[in-house]
Amino acid sequence: MRVIAVANQKGGVAKTTTAVTLAHDLARRGHSVILVDLDAQGNVSPCFGLPPSPGLYRLLLSLVPLEELLVEVRPSLWLLPSDSSTAKLKMILAAEPYRETVLARALALADADYVILDTGPSRDLLHDNAHHAADEVVCPVAVDHLALIGVAQEMETLKFVRDHGHAVEMAAILPTFWDKTTNESQINLEKLVQKFGDLVLPAVPRTTRLREAPALGRTLWEYLDPNHAAYRAYQRLTERILHGK
Ligand SMILES: Nc1ncnc2c1ncn2[C@@H]1O[C@H](COP(=O)(O)OP(=O)(O)O)[C@@H](O)[C@H]1O
Ligand SMILES: [Mg+2]
User: Fold this and answer.
1) Residue 15 C-alpha to ligand 2 middle, in angstroms?
2) Which CATH number is 153's domain given?
3) Which residues pair with 139 in a beta bridge?
4) Helices 15-28 + 229-243 axis angle, to 10
5) 176 Cβ inside 6 Å of ligand 1
6) What is the pLDDT of residues 6-49, one digit of tens each?
7) Measured from the CB, is residue 53 less than 6 Å from ligand 1?
């Protein structure tokens, strides 16, 4: 089982979009996948046309076993949902011993090829838990002037977690909201490639199609044309995860 966190402390950089899209592609290709929503906004459920619900809260407080909380949202793809109870969860867990490894321990017995963690935008206890549970991180980054800062912060988090004894690696940096009509996109993409080299994947373009899909409870794979540049960019991400190149 490989656990992959989709993380960047900035909000609105396409973390949830990336987690949903990657998880569904791995499932479409025949792997069993658990998608975990770690954000109190509970944005993952609506992407599948479902209301948010307190799955994460119940799991991490050991109220209900994982198998009973998972919702099958597509063939081979199970969702552990979240909602506003996740905010309360952070306060309750703050008093626990070994509090940054609660998620890792809860997922240790999970039966899946991949676990994909969609994280929230703040550096908090659940963010620490995601990094302590993850083997690898995918960092989506909007190619604006804050792009480099977002990735640098994520790299610092990875170093911190490694220094505390948990092996976790950056698997891919995914530039998002690429806009061919602005110099800003190009300049910031070039800066990312200069600094992080092959870790940086081809950029996902800004497209209203990607905004429309979740509103209809559909994923990118069910809504975009396979020739669309965003479709191809997300295919490259899956291939990086599967084959490491
Ligand atoms: N490439 C894109 N082009 C246009 N809109 C996008 C793109 N990727 C994501 N979005 C939209 O941008 C918003 C923020 O994306 P989201 O994945 O929720 O980010 P995060 O989880 O980092 O806050 C959502 O409405 C989403 O549908
Ligand atoms: Mg999100």
Assistant:
1) 5
2) 3.40.50.300
3) 173
4) 70
5) yes
6) 999 999 999 999 999 999 999 999 999 999 999 999 999 999 99
7) no
